[in-house]
Amino acid sequence: MFASLAERLQETFKKLRGKGRLTESDVNEALREVRLALLEADVNFKVVKDFIARIKERAVGQELLASLNPAQHVIKIVHEELTTLMGGSNSRINLAPKPPTVVMMVGLNGAGKTTTSAKLANLMRKQGRRPLMVAADVYRPAAIKQLEVLGGQLNLPVFSMGDQLEPVAIGLAAVESAAGAGRDMVIIDTAGRQEVNEELMAELENMKETIKPHEILLVVDAMTGQAAVSVAETFNSRLGLDGVVLTKLDGDTRGGAALSVRSVTGKPIKFVGVGEKLDALEPFHPERMAERILG
Ligand code: GDP
Question: Which residues are recorded as binding GTP (predicted)?
């Protein structure tokens, strides 16, 4: 992931390090390269503009001239700003004051919602929770079966009522059954669609109002770049997301979505999908990601 972005930024900073003393134009030249690298990585234009402006403000001037190792100083600033851009620190799931915690997984078909629901259940179990997965994706053929198979592989329960009921009715029944079954977390795999449309948004709004989840997580495919960011914007404006899961970060995604989502939507990336296996979901750590990008 981000191979070309990382390579370009590392190259830029290598040049900067080789210079010893830095002039203002050295810094500007380096920032021009950073700007281009980010745009080529498909980072949102406005996000790049604000990002570069913030770094420039900090990196050019007294602070820099006074520092012992100016190149290192600039790199440190970029590292800090990159971390902030991605949300600062790791964000966790909102837990219910009184269990069960209800998590609504939302997203478009193909983003990885069903797989991520199972991966999240697996991760939550490792953290000591007792999750129940709910098969409420009634429109995508085979989604219910898929979740049941994944539940079988994980040896975790899956609540399903076929595909003839409304997702909200299934979700409600699942939440009602959870406490009695000793489950303290309910992860609902909601129905997606091929694309964002009014029917989907109205259905999810209705589910939110009826079920009152503690956490709404949007699953988006990092490979789709800025399209993922615009999906996140729409879902957030209608539903008020709590966080985003970026999937397929193991592929050769350029990084645009990872670097823009937080800034554009104001909502944190909470988890990233890094493979097809059921243990390939990680909490998202902005600082570690910045380190990976900057080398
Ligand atoms: P849904 O339609 O959103 O429920 O999507 P699925 O959960 O069925 O996932 C669609 C495809 O993406 C499946 O082949 C998954 O194995 C794959 N997938 C999901 N997450 C990841 C990921 O993080 N990395 C990779 N490489 N593949 C993923």
Answer: 107-114, 189-193, 247-250
- The pTM assigned to this predicted structure is 0.95
Ligand 1 site residues (CB inside 6 A) read: 107, 109-115, 140, 143, 192, 247-248, 250-251, 273-276, 280
ipTM of the complex: 0.99
- Distance of alpha carbon 73 from alpha carbon 276, whole angstroms: 39
CA 247 to ligand 1 centroid distance, Å: 7
Beta bridge partners of 62: none
119 in a known ligand binding site: no
Residues 70-126 have pLDDT tens digits of 888 899 999 999 999 999 998 899 999 999 999 999 999 999 999 999 999 999 999
Answer yes or no: is 250 a known binding residue: yes
C-alpha triplet 98, 103, 107: angle, nearest 5°:
165
- Summarize pLDDT for 52-79 with one digit per residue, the tens: 999 999 887 766 666 778 888 899 999 9
Say if residues 29 and 59 touch (Cβ distance below 8 Å): no
